[in-house]
Write a structure and sequence with these properties.
With 297 residues, the protein is α/β, with parallel strands linked by helices. The longest helix is centred in the middle third of the chain and has 26 residues. Bound molecules: magnesium ion. The site of magnesium ion has 5 residues, from loops.
């Protein structure tokens, strides 16, 4: 795990570097608050930080406030490690948003266990985020998380001037499958489809479960005709599944789905418009007799 050390004293830099790496942390060093903020803002930057109070350029107190004001989409656990040992400063530090406060010179074991506390909080936060963003049955992004990601991806590809396509998928006759074999089998079918799709997608594509038996896939960087090729591959990948039942032979099912594609263009207002257009193409695929891919024209 990465840990940021914001510290201007060479003496403490060295002690912390040695101690923390002995405990298995990867130390990211910053000599002042400005540098520290930059490191924390980086994608995949440290989520755990030990910060000194007195530092040039930006002190620990300001750093703490800045982190809480500007980095609100993922939690950073902040521990003050400072020579300021009076109660008033400690309260100021906590008020500025620090999670914990340790005074110098510090006790190694105390630091170790306070870091463990921080890790515990961060792990919980991670789990909550996972739960909030994923569909529990398939492990795919849920609708909200998918749409959020799509919004930022559209903005990015507009800037780059590159194409982006959306594929909407709906399993054919799924209600009948549920009615005939029960919901547990239906769930297995959904998991099977999610697994096949995930295996056949490219690295930059992302997928979500949009509703009951509806999936949605974004293929950045490709136009509708390439998206068509991808969708065809997905369509063929799901057809045969064996579902283990509690008793007897595994159930052999034949699964099909209909696909609708829309490429993002100037005619499309926003993300919901894009989804609507792809959905219309999907509807067309159903009307044409299902088990096929249709591009919105
Ligand atoms: Mg200092």
């Amino acid at each position: 795990m990465k840990i940021l050390v914001a510290e201007d004293s060479r003496y403490y830099q060295r002690i912390l570097q040695d101690t923390l790496s002995n405990w298995g942390y990867t130390v990211v060093l910053a000599k002042n608050g400005v540098q520290a903020l930059e490191r924390l803002k980086e994608k995949d930057g440290p989520k755990l930080a030990i910060i000194d109070w007195m530092m040039p350029e930006m002190n620990g107190l300001e750093l703490c406030k800045k982190v809480r004001e500007t980095l609100d989409n993922s939690y950073i656990y902040l521990i003050f490690l400072t020579a300021n040992s009076n109660k008033e400063d400690m309260i100021k530090g906590l008020e500025a948003g620090a999670d914990d406060y340790i005074t110098k010179p510090f006790n190694e074991l105390e630091l170790k266990f306070r870091l463990k506390n921080g890790e515990r909080i961060l792990n919980l936060e991670n789990r909550i985020m996972q739960l909030a963003l994923t569909d529990p049955l398939t492990g795919l992004l849920n609708r909200r998380a998918f749409v959020d990601r799509l919004v930022s991806e559209i903005a990015r590809y507009k800037r780059l001037g590159q194409p982006l396509s959306l594929i909407m998928v709906d399993l054919d006759n799924f209600k009948k499958c549920n009615d005939t074999y029960g919901h547990l089998v239906g769930d297995e079918v959904l998991k099977h489809v999610a697994k096949c799709f995930s295996q056949f997608l490219r690295k930059y594509d992302f997928i979500g479960r949009y509703g009951g038996e509806e999936f949605v896939i974004c293929t950045p960087g490709v136009d509708a005709s390439v998206a068509y090729t991808i969708a065809e591959r997905l369509r063929k990948s799901i057809k045969h599944v064996n579902i283990q039942q509690e008793e007897g032979e595994p159930l052999q099912l034949y699964i099909t789905a209909s696909f609708g594609i829309c490429e993002f263009s100037d005619k499309i207002k926003d993300v919901y418009d894009l989804i609507k257009e792809a959905d219309e193409a999907l509807y067309q695929a159903k009307a044409n007799g299902k088990d096929q891919v249709v591009i919105k024209n």
